[in-house]
Amino acid sequence: MNINWDRVYLAYDLAKEWQILLAGLLVFFAALIVAGATIRAARMGGAARSEARARSQLDLRSAPPPPSANHATPAAASSELLSILEQLRSLIRSALGSLPQMSEKPGEKENSPAYFLCQRILHLRLDQLPPPAGGAAQEGFSALLKQLNALRAQLKKDIAPEELSEILVQINASARNLAAALAPAGEKRRQADR
Q1: Backbone conformation region of residue 52, classed left if phi is above 0, alpha if psi is from -120 to 50, else beta
Q2: pTM across the whole model
Q3: 24, 160, 176, 194: least buried by Cβ within 10 Å?
Q4: Fold of 74-193
Q5: pLDDT by 10s per residue, the chain, length 194
Q6: How far is C-alpha 6 from the geometric centre of its chain's CA atoms?
């Protein structure tokens, strides 16, 4: 079999020239298919949304009233406080783990991880949250705020790591007690079973 190399090169050159056009056509047809599928999905989703809206508007008397923007529900406020308390306890554990065993040099205070984590603890701004409802929860919240203020005052001074450790342990205990006071009754039962 005898191969004519001139014809092979000619066919290769033609394929190279048509390759760009063919690729463009494939991309165009793929875009048409995707656009058609998107339009069909939007039509089906719009029909389902309008049907759900019609079902929900059948009887507005049975619908719960919308929450007002000015007053947060007590459950939402306590869940936010519980979330912040978990953050606080996590930061305290990290700060206690990063405390040095020996006394730090005075110039290294701002560069220490424990000092940075204590600043993060103070930036949680628990004092800007509304106090929780309930006697034990309110007492725990006010005790926690007092301890945070003591931490703020001690960080302005040159505090030893042992004293900082004591303050952080006290804050952690207060946060744990406050979280226990805020936990729902079912959660308290589950914790008692453990």
Answers
A1: alpha
A2: 0.52
A3: 194
A4: Four Helix Bundle (Hemerythrin (Met), subunit A) (1.20.120)
A5: 788 888 998 988 888 888 888 889 999 999 999 999 999 888 887 777 777 666 655 544 455 555 544 444 555 567 777 888 888 888 888 888 877 654 545 456 666 777 778 888 877 777 777 777 777 777 888 888 888 888 888 778 777 777 878 888 888 888 888 888 877 644 554 455 55
A6: 67
Q: What span, in angstroms and rounded, lies between the C-alpha atoms of 84 and 141? A: 12
- Cα of 135 vs its chain's centroid, Å: 30
DSSP string, 101-162: SSPPPGGGTTT-HHHHHHHHHHTT-GGGSPPPSSHHHHHHHHHHHHHHHHHHHHHHS---HH
